[in-house]
């Protein structure tokens, strides 16, 4: 293939890419052959601002569509060509468990964040995390990422999720109506937006612990201004799981 045109980086005068770039179409085809490998996309984003912009607009979008096609189709079915936050943030949410640090959102324990090979997100499960009056909202929630034998904390599970059209959701309206305060220091690990505590707003239903197979008083989660959800729970021992499922 003979490439006759290149595109110069116009985002930064200090950019190392003094000889210009390949066209977006060529980069698209290369990453299509790589099956939208997230590590390769992240590496490309570090080259310069031109590649970073391309990754945000195109590559992360295609990664999300490939990784969770039905979920992405639903999230965009309201007519928007984008998603709340950005595609890079959503891509990270699909494959990254944020963990927690002492003094952070869940300040009693420290577990490093890490990438996960595969996670199931469920719209049906999301209903269990909403109060009855908010269940017309659409929320996708992951299965908990299990971190077992965490000392006094027991078996810890982290879960994450995303709302569809959060800016017009009933959950957001209720948070505002109840005067919920944004966290003073911590931000969303996926998009850096401010966070509301659903626990402080008293908006976590009992059905959430049943869905997670967790202790009822040990479920906590936050939602950011872009509708990303991150939470923690203490999982029931395996011997108690069957008993918990009877309440679901």
TrEMBL record:
Protein name in UniProt: EID1-like F-box protein 2
Biological source species: Ziziphus jujuba var. spinosa
UniProt-listed PANTHER family: EID1-LIKE F-BOX PROTEIN 1, EID1-LIKE F-BOX PROTEIN 2-RELATED
Alphabetical list of SUPFAM superfamilies matching this protein: F-box domain
Matching InterPro entries: EID1-like (IPR040267), F-box-like_dom_sf (IPR036047)
């Amino acid at each position: 293939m003979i490439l006759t045109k290149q595109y110069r980086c116009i985002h930064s005068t200090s950019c190392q890419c003094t000889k210009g770039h390949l066209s977006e179409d060529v980069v698209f085809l290369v990453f299509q052959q790589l099956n939208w490998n997230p590590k390769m996309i992240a590496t490309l984003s570090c080259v310069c601002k031109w590649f970073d912009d391309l990754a945000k607009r195109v590559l992360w979008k295609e990664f999300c569509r490939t990784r969770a096609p039905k979920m992405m189709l639903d999230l965009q079915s309201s007519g928007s060509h984008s998603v709340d936050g950005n595609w890079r943030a959503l891509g990270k949410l699909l494959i990254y468990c944020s963990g927690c640090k002492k003094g952070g959102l869940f300040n009693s324990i420290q577990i490093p964040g890490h990438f996960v090979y595969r996670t199931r997100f469920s719209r049906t499960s999301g209903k269990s995390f909403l109060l009855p009056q908010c269940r017309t909202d659409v929320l996708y929630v992951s299965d908990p990422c299990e971190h077992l034998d965490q000392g006094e904390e027991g078996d810890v599970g982290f879960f994450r999720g995303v709302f569809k059209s959060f800016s017009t959701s009933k959950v957001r309206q209720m948070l505002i109506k109840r005067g919920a305060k944004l966290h003073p220091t911590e931000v969303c690990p996926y998009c850096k937006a401010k966070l509301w505590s659903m626990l402080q707003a008293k908006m976590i239903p009992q059905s959430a612990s049943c869905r997670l197979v967790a202790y009822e008083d040990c479920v906590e989660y936050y939602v950011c201004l872009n509708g990303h959800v991150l939470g923690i729970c203490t999982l029931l021992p395996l011997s108690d799981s069957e008993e918990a499922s009877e309440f679901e």
